[in-house]
Design goal:
heterodimer, A: alpha/beta, four-stranded antiparallel β-sheet, about 35% helix, globular, B: mainly alpha
């Protein structure tokens, strides 16, 4: 868990202040305030279309590549604006890595894929590559499965292995923060478990932002939970707080609804058992 | 009523398809049947004597020099244009304008390119007739087709590859090298070959600035260094060859030219089809 005294003393690893993304006159997300502390996992949950992926892309300046989009507000990495004058978007994206919903494997071998960013970005000397390759694959918990298949086409791996390969590729450039956009939505339970185990391990060295639709995954991995939903036509953070608190006592109707729909038909209790708040909030709406 | 319309539409399209194939077959068949008797080892490997004897060695060499130069000049320019239009031009409107310009340039009549080349290279630069002028003019002719083929290929690349590369902190130039060009190679290859197939058969651009009918072998400079070329050779023989054996020479040269164009097109075909298939399925 995050040490509150230490967290108060140093700036958050990643922080959004009044952040928004617009397309022309239309706001896609608006007024987002979030703090992601070092060595913690912030989980973003919310219904489809709420703007979770757009927010994630705004947090590492991937929206710069979409000419129709513009941003409002600030994002700070260790207290310094990533959108500030003179800040290079490419170096920001290297420092804030991202893993997408579907594994994106480049044509080439397993090793080529893991070293993609290092080689093409000129981030490592040739002699360093073997060591960086092994370290990244080990960090993604894939070494035992691919150590004898490094020269084989990456496309020959299973989808779950491909997603961990993409994680290894992202880790190879040594990002300070990791953004994970529903990384397990296309995976089977076993691969999902492997990725979640990695998230818990990586949390020891990095700040992580995880977008998920799976409240159980949030329960298993997150320190902080943020619920995003649409208000007045744009996505915004409805509620944010310690995962345990929010799951047991949601304060907003949106999160209560999300919990209710996510857990529909699932008899297992949450690790942090929801008190009567969810039912109370929904009952208020019904009446 | 609707079924009659459907049948009528089918009939019209079938007739159109058959007509096109028939014309193509008749033209190709005529060239093959009339040209084949002229083709032998001597025809391909000896120089023309007079206006209708001997072979087409230097016409073949000249044509290869022209299209080789056109390729060497147009390829880097096409890559630059395509990358500018797809990677470096951020605004979709600018990108659309660039594409519209290229499509328009692709439709410029070749004779106008030939006249412009004559004015610039032969007249202003004082090159007279020069193989380099011909190569540059052919490069200009095929540049739009090459660029458009590459742009279409790049635009069909799945967006996720670009996002993944940018997400690792690569800049535009690194993404262009590592992802865009690497995965668009077949588009460039097929575009270049189809462009060359067109260039190999063009007469008008080289008519004024590069080609002569006889008296040239392998160029040894730039100024006043014309070449012989198959399309120009066929053009001249078809117009005014009264020499004995001229007709046989004409059809033989036409068949060699046809084979050259067909080879380039056929080599380009598989990668063109693969690019289409990949763009359809992502």
């Amino acid at each position: 868990m995050v040490d509150p005294a230490k967290a108060a003393a140093s700036p958050s690893a990643l922080e959004a202040r009044g952040f928004g993304v617009g397309n022309g006159a239309r706001d896609l997300i608006r007024g987002v305030d979030l703090k992601v502390e070092s060595r913690s996992v912030l989980c973003l949950v919310g219904p489809s279309g709420a703007g979770k992926t757009t927010l994630l892309r705004g947090l590492n300046r991937l929206i710069d590549l979409a000419p129709d989009l513009h941003r409002i507000g600030e994002v700070l990495l260790h207290g310094r604006s990533i959108y500030g004058r003179g800040v290079d978007g490419d170096s920001v994206r290297r420092r804030i890595g991202i893993l997408f919903q579907q594994p994106v494997v480049f044509p080439g071998s397993v090793a080529d894929n893991v070293l993609f960013g290092l080689r093409h970005g000129g981030l490592a000397r040739r002699r360093e590559l073997p060591e960086r390759l092994e370290r990244a694959i080990r960090e993604a918990a894939l070494w035992e499965e691919v150590k004898d298949r490094l020269a084989e086409p990456a496309a020959s791996l299973s989808v779950g292995q491909q997603q961990r390969l993409c994680l290894a590729r992202a880790l190879a450039v040594e990002p300070e923060v990791l953004l994970l956009d529903e990384p397990t939505s296309a995976l089977d339970p076993r691969s999902t478990e492997a990725i979640e185990e990695r998230i818990r391990a990586l949390r020891e060295t990095r700040a992580i932002v995880l977008v998920t639709h799976d409240i159980r995954q949030a329960e298993r991995t997150a320190d902080v939970l943020a619920c995003i939903d649409r208000r007045e036509g744009a996505g915004t953070v409805i509620e944010c707080g310690a995962c345990r608190d929010l799951l047991s006592r949601p304060q907003s109707l949106e999160l209560a609804r999300f919990l209710d729909s996510s857990l529909a038909g699932d008899p297992r209790p949450l690790r942090f058992p929801a008190e009567t708040a969810t039912a109370d909030l929904l009952a208020v709406v019904e009446t | 009523m609707r079924s009659w319309l459907a049948r009528g539409f089918f009939l019209a399209t079938a007739i159109s398809a058959v007509a096109v194939f028939a014309v193509l077959l008749i033209a190709t068949g005529t060239i093959v049947v009339r040209g084949l008797p002229a083709i032998d080892r001597t025809f391909l490997f000896t120089a023309t004597v007079g206006s209708g004897e001997g072979g087409v060695l230097y016409q073949l060499v000249g044509t290869l020099i022209l299209i080789g130069t056109a390729l060497a000049v147009s390829l880097p320019l096409a890559i630059g244009l395509a990358l500018a239009a797809t990677v470096y031009l951020p605004r979709p409107r600018l990108r659309r304008s660039a594409l519209a310009l290229l499509y328009t340039a692709n439709g410029i009549p070749s004779v106008l390119v030939g006249i412009a080349g004559f004015l610039v290279f032969s007249h202003w630069l004082g090159w007279g007739k020069s193989w380099l002028a011909g190569g540059l003019l052919l490069a200009l002719m095929i540049l739009p087709a090459e660029s458009v083929a590459l742009i279409e290929r790049i635009e069909s690349l799945p967006r996720r590859y670009l996002d993944a590369a940018y997400g690792l902190g690569l800049n535009r130039s690194q993404v262009a090298r590592a992802v865009v060009l690497r995965q668009s190679w077949n588009g460039l290859f097929s575009g270049a070959l189809l462009g060359l197939a067109r260039a190999a058969g063009e007469t008008a651009p080289i008519l004024f600035a590069a080609a002569v009918f006889s008296g040239a072998t392998v160029p040894r400079g730039i100024r006043e260094s014309p070449v012989l070329a198959l399309p120009y050779h066929v053009f001249v023989l078809a117009q005014d060859s009264f020499a004995a054996g001229g007709e046989r020479h004409l059809w033989g040269a036409a068949l060699v030219l046809l084979c050259l164009v067909a080879t380039l097109s056929l080599v380009a075909l598989p990668s063109r089809l693969r690019a289409h298939e990949e763009s359809r399925h992502g």
